[in-house]
């Protein structure tokens, strides 16, 4: 196996992953110089021990908010003994995960009901397109089938929506950097977008 490890190092090509992820992601990139370079950036800049520790206050704050929400729900149930109460643990944990990941990666929670619903729908459709069976990935000469079953159109729509969202996030970060002119790592944390803009 060690003599043939490079043969198994890459994932198969995926048309939709290349489209939705700009062909520049770490997960679907073929093994080679580019993959090693972005892995190095991810390891040293995004997921270094210092960077992970810098997000500790966010994780602690969001966990405290989650516990407080559960506590308030329980107190509300004790006040209204006549009504039955329950806490949707799945929803609470999904909200916690969403808020922590968004704060660490994008610098904003998207926790308002409208924003959260829009963001979750965007992610849901994105993941749905990525995991959809694409016959063209396995039998390239049958890729034309995706024009008729609507997959290409769905992927194109999702790409445009995702691209608009990411452009807005990047522009917000650029505008904020111009206003502040210097981001102080000691006083304020840098999210993933800030780190990537700095590089």
TrEMBL record:
Question: Which Gene Ontology MF annotations are present?
Answer: heme binding; iron ion binding; monooxygenase activity; oxidoreductase activity, acting on paired donors, with incorporation or reduction of molecular oxygen
Give the protein name, as stated in the record.
Answer: Cytochrome P450
InterPro entries xrefs: Cyt_P450 (IPR001128), Cyt_P450_sf (IPR036396)
Transmembrane ranges, per UniProt, are none
Any Pfam family hit: p450
Entry superkingdom: Eukaryota
Alphabetic keyword roster: Iron, Metal-binding
Look up the record and give one Gene Ontology term from the biological process aspect: secondary metabolite biosynthetic process
**Which protein family is named in the record?**
Belongs to the cytochrome P450 family.
């Amino acid at each position: 196996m060690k003599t043939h490890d490079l043969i198994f190092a890459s994932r198969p090509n995926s048309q939709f992953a290349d489209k939705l992820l700009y062909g520049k992601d770490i997960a679907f990139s073929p093994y080679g110089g580019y993959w090693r370079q972005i892995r190095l950036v991810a390891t040293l800049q995004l997921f270094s021990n210092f960077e992970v520790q810098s997000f500790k206050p966010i994780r602690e704050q969001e966990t405290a908010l989650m516990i407080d929400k559960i506590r308030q729900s329980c107190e509300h149930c004790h006040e209204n003994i006549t009504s039955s109460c329950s806490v949707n643990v799945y929803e609470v944990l999904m909200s916690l995960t969403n808020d922590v990941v968004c704060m660490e990666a994008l610098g904003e929670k998207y926790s308002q009901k409208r924003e959260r619903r829009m963001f979750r729908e965007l992610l849901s459709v994105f993941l749905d397109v990525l995991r959809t069976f694409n016959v063209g990935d396995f039998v390239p000469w049958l890729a034309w089938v995706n024009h008729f079953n609507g997959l290409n159109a769905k992927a194109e729509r999702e790409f445009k929506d995702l691209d608009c969202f990411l452009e807005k996030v990047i522009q917000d970060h650029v505008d904020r950097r111009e206003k502040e002119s210097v981001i102080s790592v000691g006083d304020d944390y840098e999210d993933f977008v800030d780190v990537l803009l700095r590089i």
